[in-house]
Design goal:
Elements: E1 7-11, H1 16-27, E2 31-36, H2 39-49, E3 53-57, H3 63-70, E4 76-79, H4 96-123, E5 127-132, H5 146-167, E6 171-178, H6 184-191, H7 205-217, E7 225-228, E8 235-236
Helix pairs in contact: 1-2, 1-7, 3-4, 4-5
């Protein structure tokens, strides 16, 4: 589908990956809703874009706030918001409230935004949803944040299982799965790891935003999971 002229909601767009995606979609001609709990960062993202964006402050763990956000009926939805207590143990040491908040943000929120987006997209004749996963959700090895990696694994699986149902109504659902991304936070956190645990080089932001645009543009792609960062070039996991 064409991006130009479409309304796009990008969650977690105040900084980093989300900001880069919002800027790229605006450059492609979309009207972008920058959704984030960080008011200062969200407004900075909008300022960097100009008239093609507006900021909505939203805590994605608040169902009523998500309902209000999705009332704009976007044709494009990028479920980017996520994260957790990076590099700090959470489950099972932390309280239920702490680790469940990570599950709510990384899995429940994109499930709810998707559920709310589908009726309007179907009525409009189609739409595109892109989930932003993480390589933390792949494989069988340990991870410092089990609840975060479990949520990202579920998001990948959700994409594959939901896609046929959505596609029957012209809505395509795909997932991009980056390794460490070259944001300020990614650079800082990767540097804290032992050298032998840092893995591949950081994924450039333009590689990630290219992948998001491709998933929106290419009407033949649905239910696909694209891995970025473990090989010389991106490749589909399925």
């Amino acid at each position: 589908m064409r991006i130009d002229g479409k309304l796009a909601v990008v969650t977690g767009a105040a900084v980093g990956i989300g900001r880069a995606i919002a800027q790229r979609l605006a450059a492609e001609g979309a009207e972008v809703v920058v959704a984030d709990v960080d008011s200062d960062g969200g407004r900075e993202t909008c300022h960097s874009i100009g008239s093609g964006a507006r900021f909505v402050r939203v805590d994605l763990r608040d169902d009523d706030a998500v309902v209000d956000l999705m009332a704009c009926q976007p044709q494009i939805l990028v479920n980017n918001a996520g994260g957790g207590p990076s590099l700090q143990p959470c489950f099972p040491e932390a309280s239920v409230e702490r680790w469940s908040a990570s599950l709510d943000l990384n899995l429940r929120a994109p499930m709810l935004t998707t559920q709310l987006a589908l009726p309007a997209m179907r009525a409009a004749g189609g739409g595109a949803i892109v989930n932003v996963g993480s390589t933390a959700g792949l494989g069988f090895g340990p991870h410092v944040s089990p609840e975060y990696s479990a949520a990202k694994a579920a998001l990948i699986r959700l994409t594959a299982t939901l896609a046929p149902l959505a596609d029957s109504h012209g809505v395509r659902v795909n997932c991009v799965v980056p390794d460490w991304v070259a944001t300020d936070r990614g650079i800082r956190e990767r540097s804290l790891l032992p050298e032998d645990e840092r893995g591949p080089e950081l994924v450039p932001l333009d590689v990630l935003t290219d992948a998001v645009v491709r998933f929106i543009d290419d009407d033949t792609l649905t239910g696909r999971v694209l891995l970025l960062g473990r090989e010389e070039r991106p490749f589909f996991l399925n």
